[in-house]
Amino acid sequence: MATRQGKLKLGKSSWFVKRRLSWLPQEDLVREADFCPLPEVLGGGLWLGLVVSHHDGSVVAQDILEHAPDVNDLATLLAEAMQRPLMEQTRCRPKAFHLRDNPEWDELRPHLAQLSIEVVVTEKLLKWEEVFADLIDYLKSEEWKQPVIDIAGDVEGGDERQDRLLGLRLAVILYPAMRKANKTK
To answer: What CATH number corresponds to the domain at position 77?
Structure first.
């Protein structure tokens, strides 16, 4: 699959608006972020982006893409993690983001530095990898199907790929609550 390489887009037409992000309080938190292709059995050609807490592995932001991610996709994912975190997370700028070494992400680093956010480039994202593996197991188990059908209804006669994508997106949205519920049992 070809990657979409593009120049980083900042400003009002994007999610990554430095002025808006700079207004958020900064917390002593570390987040891990990355994208990874979903296994063929889950639809093939799809990429899952996650931002997780380095402390406890809670999912802060997520997205499913139908193309290989570019720097704009990462900027959007990080901005969503700061502005619209999932669950009961605080809206804030973290102290640091841990990212894998990807030359395409380099264009975003000076902009994060202007927001006083350190970027740590690392080979291993231990919490991210743990959450990703757990989420893939959850998606493969298909225990997510009934809650998704309860929310979205059973769609018949539609585009099978789009129906599968909608189902996966809803399952990934539900995953943080399911993970939290399973941890409290």
So the answer is: 3.30.420.10
